Amino acid sequence: MTTFQPQTAPGEAPPPDSVRPRDSTPQAPTSVSRLNETIRDFVANWGSVWVEGEITTWNLRGGAVFGRLKDLSTDATLAFRVWSSTRERLADDLKVGDHVIACVKADYFVKGGDFSFGVSSMRHVGLGDQLERLERLRAQLRAEGLFDSARKKPIPFLPHVIGLITGQRSDAEKDVHRNAQLRWPQVRFRTAYAAVQGDRCVPETIGALKALDADPEVDVIVIARGGGDPQSLLGFSDERLLRAVAAASTPVVSAIGHENDHPLLDDVADLRASTPTDAAKRVVPDVAEQRALVSQLRSRLTSRLAQRVTHDIAQLEQLRSRPALRDPESLLTNRAHEVHLLSARGRDRVDRALEAGVRRTAELRAGLQALSPASTLARGYAIAHLGDGVIVRDAEQAPAGMGLLVTVGRGSFAARSEGRIAEGGEPGEAQDRDATGAAFEPN
């Protein structure tokens, strides 16, 4: 590494145009141009130095490149410029986030008092430390599911109050307010200011987020910042802020930088807007569009109702034209006649069924009477019983002298057997016999 040494040794007189601190007094101050020329001459004696760092800014203006190089272990940076003649010799893929080594030479501009380094050579060393760290964090958060669309909360159609986190008196705040009020004049904001870059960015943004998330009137929170170099947007890729956004119960909209800017907050937030202006358009509906939609829906509803009423009137007229509704009493008259015929037919069938039943009952009664022993006895037959109630069926059962009980058609009487009569007895002594037992010939 080259060591910076002035050309004049200690004790030697400086060049005639140079100025030393003891050469100026309150009574005889030196001029600004002479001081700047002294600094320029001093800086011009430095040689070229090879430095290592990370590109944080790379702006192309008129063929030249103006950028900044950041130390890999501290926040120290230096400004550099690459003239078009030098740029033609450099790699075409140099960009923000690249880890590079560069050969630089200090230069001090007398007119503006600006200090810068001119680059004569620059080449890659590897992926910039910050970019590599962000990629590792991106992979970790994706593995944890913080980028999943399933966990993202829906944005309300018309928020009552919009929470806005942005820099104080920033263009982003003006853009969000102006575009939101153009779309919906009655929109209300609750703004929490926070630093949008630097060391205070993350803690102040987290504090504002927690305050708005705890407000029950706030329906959606917009974190907005204008464009800037990637170095100034690093706070919106901080892990602490990303986890606070993921844990918020209120939907969060990320509106950081321009279309090409893409901090990790865009992936964790519930909605990513390309710019603060786009955030206002995505969060607040257009009142003109909604009025046109309401008018269209009202027209469709009126048309459908008219069609329905017309259809129902036609159906009603069709029903009224039916005979049953034109003369309702005709239904009752026809039904009454049918009921009369059915009731007469029913009575006739019942009468015939009763007559048939009476005849059948008489026939059954006559048959039962014909088969009844009482009918046989009524014709003059008798039944002889022994003393124990056994019917006499054989003459041998009633020897001479045995008492008998004789049952006739009207009552019973006692008798005594004279014994068996021979089959060849005297004429007139023949006897009738019943199938039930001994019988006596009627008188």
Automatic annotation (TrEMBL):
<keyword id="KW-0269">Exonuclease</keyword>
<keyword id="KW-0540">Nuclease</keyword>
<comment type="similarity">
    <text>Belongs to the XseA family.</text>
</comment>
<feature type="region of interest" description="Disordered">
    <location>
        <begin position="1"/>
        <end position="31"/>
    </location>
</feature>
<dbReference type="Pfam" id="PF13742">
    <property type="entry name" value="tRNA_anti_2"/>
</dbReference>
<comment type="function">
    <text>Bidirectionally degrades single-stranded DNA into large acid-insoluble oligonucleotides, which are then degraded further into small acid-soluble oligonucleotides.</text>
</comment>
<protein>
    <recommendedName>
        <fullName>Exodeoxyribonuclease 7 large subunit</fullName>
        <ecNumber>3.1.11.6</ecNumber>
    </recommendedName>
</protein>
<comment type="subunit">
    <text>Heterooligomer composed of large and small subunits.</text>
</comment>
<dbReference type="InterPro" id="IPR025824">
    <property type="entry name" value="OB-fold_nuc-bd_dom"/>
</dbReference>
<feature type="domain" description="OB-fold nucleic acid binding">
    <location>
        <begin position="31"/>
        <end position="123"/>
    </location>
</feature>
<keyword id="KW-0378">Hydrolase</keyword>
<dbReference type="InterPro" id="IPR020579">
    <property type="entry name" value="Exonuc_VII_lsu_C"/>
</dbReference>
<dbReference type="Pfam" id="PF02601">
    <property type="entry name" value="Exonuc_VII_L"/>
</dbReference>
<dbReference type="InterPro" id="IPR003753">
    <property type="entry name" value="Exonuc_VII_L"/>
</dbReference>
<feature type="region of interest" description="Disordered">
    <location>
        <begin position="419"/>
        <end position="443"/>
    </location>
</feature>
<feature type="domain" description="Exonuclease VII large subunit C-terminal">
    <location>
        <begin position="146"/>
        <end position="368"/>
    </location>
</feature>
<keyword id="KW-0963">Cytoplasm</keyword>
